[in-house]
Amino acid sequence: MGQVRPSNYEIMRDRMEMEFIKYDQAKMIQKFSLQHDADFLYIRFAGREYRIGRKNGRVEWYSDVKAVQAHITAIQKAMSPRHRKTQTQSAVLCDIRGEQ
């Protein structure tokens, strides 16, 4: 049996990862108000949380309660007090924050 050739998807993904790390990540963070740490940029896309490796460009599905809560807090700070109250009540009723 011979080697399995990578799919076109895998070839493109690998190329895009290498391209991603060439870009100015500080500008991306500022332009899109991205959450970030030393290892990852965090982004919400199509209703899901993802993280992108800052050193390798690899995109991964990501679910971190603390990151989601930080995102909710940032949104709430931008809302009016009346809207915040309604949103907080909805969060409690729907348990979107999870139990601590």
Structure description:
The protein is of the alpha+beta class and 100 residues long. The chain starts with 7 loop residues before the first helix and ends in a 6-residue tail after the last helix. The chain has two domains: 63 residues, no CATH class; 37 residues. 3% of the residues are buried. The radius of gyration is 18 Å and the shape is elongated. The longest helix has 14 residues. The mean pLDDT is 77. It has a four-stranded antiparallel β-sheet with strand order 1-2-3-4, covered by helices on one side. Helices cover 49% and strands 17% of the residues. The chain contains four helices and four strands.
